[in-house]
Design goal:
Elements lengths: L1 E7 L6 H13 L3 E7 L4 H8 L3 E4 L11 H16 L3 E5 L1 H13 L4 E6 L10 H16 L3 E4 L2 H9 L8 E3 L15 H7 L7 E6 L8 H9 L6 E6 L5 H10 L6 E5 L4 H6 L3 E4 L8 H8 L4 E4 L4 H4 L6 E4 L4 H12 L2 H18 L2 H17 L5
Parallel strand pairs: 1-2, 1-4, 2-3, 4-5, 5-6, 6-7, 8-9, 8-11, 9-10, 11-12, 12-13
């Protein structure tokens, strides 16, 4: 069995970590999988519960650091030299940079990188985007293949000349549909969740951080004429306290509820009527796929790979980022039409089952692994 090292920066439970977990879980029948990540989050525990080997590297951190980054690079290099992995597969910007440099230094035969949304995506300042794209060009030179989670990201990489087109491949994210196919009645689920007092529920799941732009969503909700509906915000992150204070200041505590980080997201989605995503930039958000599996119509900003998930006017509504009025109008349109919600939700569920299952993602990933292996002979 060939040895594969998957590397992701943090062990928190985000989109990149979820994909690392699924790849490790489903590829281990063909490969000997090891995952390297920072300690302290749920990813390590979930992988170990599946019997997957986890190596913690404390120096891995999200933001650039003049001391910790060289130490992380040194540790990754020695790990690769010592254990002679045939494939190194990195995820996220920081792990992608350090992991690929270490793999090239250690002469790993196959070096892969999944870009879970480029750091130079739209929504950032122009000069900063250009600089981040230049940084990505260095590790791209050492990459056997670069996996983009959307066609949008592939085109972005080509526009910024990060890598030649033959190195870039699109593999859409996939989700396990079964947990989201609950048959329990919405009102019964709301009763179980202790939130049976809402006539309807709009839910957003995401990290409370600038890219998700909860502020625009809260502003849009403030202008709605739907007093019996509630907005549920599910997640954790550095801006949670600030957002809670904003909701209190606007007098919306009875209408907007913070559910924090939860392990029962499938039940929360099935108890909801509409899913919303107000992001300023995205890769290919798993939360939208999960909402589609749960049969929810989706209102989302037209950013990143989101239009590859949501068919405008068919499975949901797309609005410009940071547009409070457009977001509010889309919310009112779906809140006021149960028939439209049901039709869009069912079409979205069918689309997710056709195109965004974990089985489909794994088949494409296995095919890519076989393709890159076929060009190399291992001793």
């Amino acid at each position: 069995m060939k040895r594969v090292l998957q590397i992701v920066t943090l062990s928190e439970w985000g989109g990149a970590q979820h994909i690392v977990y699924l790849l490790a879980k489903y590829l281990r029948s063909d490969y000997e999988i090891t995952v390297a990540c920072a300690p302290g989050g749920p990813l390590g525990g979930r992988l170990r519960a599946e019997g997957i080997r986890v190596l913690e590297i404390p120096e891995l951190c999200r933001n650039p650091h003049p001391i910790r980054d060289p130490r992380a690079l040194w540790k990754l290099y020695h790990l690769m030299k010592r254990e002679r992995f045939e494939i190194v597969h990195t995820h996220s910007t920081k792990a992608g940079l350090l992991g690929r440099l270490a793999a090239a230094w250690a002469q790993v035969p196959i070096i892969l990188f999944t870009a879970h949304g480029w750091a130079f995506s739209e929504g950032r300042l122009g000069p900063w985007r250009w600089l981040l794209a230049q940084v990505e060009r260095l590790p791209a030179r050492f990459s056997t293949k670069i996996i983009c989670v959307s066609e949008y990201d592939r085109q972005l990489a080509l526009r910024f000349r990060v890598a030649p087109k033959e190195k870039l491949v699109v593999i859409h994210n996939g989700v396990e549909p079964e947990p989201f196919c609950l048959t329990t009645d919405k009102r019964e689920l709301r009763l179980r969740l202790g939130m049976s007092d809402a006539a309807g529920v709009v839910t957003m799941v995401g990290r409370f951080a600038p890219p998700k732009d909860f502020e625009t969503l809260i502003a849009a909700w403030e202008g709605l004429r739907a007093p019996s509906w509630q907005l549920w915000l599910v997640g954790e992150g550095p801006r949670r306290s600030r957002l809670e204070e904003l909701v209190r200041a606007k007098g919306l505590c009875q209408h907007i509820r913070f559910l924090r980080e939860r392990h029962d997201v499938p039940a929360i989605l099935k108890a909801s009527d509409i899913f919303v995503l107000s992001s300023r930039w995205e890769g290919l958000p798993l939360t939208v796929i999960e909402a589609m599996f749960a049969g929810l119509p989706v209102i989302a900003t037209r950013v990143g790979g989101v239009p590859e998930l949501v068919e405008e006017g068919i499975t949901g509504l797309l609005v410009p980022a940071r547009d409070t009025r457009a977001l509010g109008n889309a919310l009112e349109q779906l809140i006021n039409s149960a028939e439209l919600r049901q039709r869009m939700g069912e079409l979205g569920r069918q689309r997710a089952l056709r195109q965004f299952t974990v089985d489909r993602m794994i088949r494409h990933m296995q095919a890519l692994y076989r393709e890159v292996e076929s060009h190399l002979s291992f001793e």
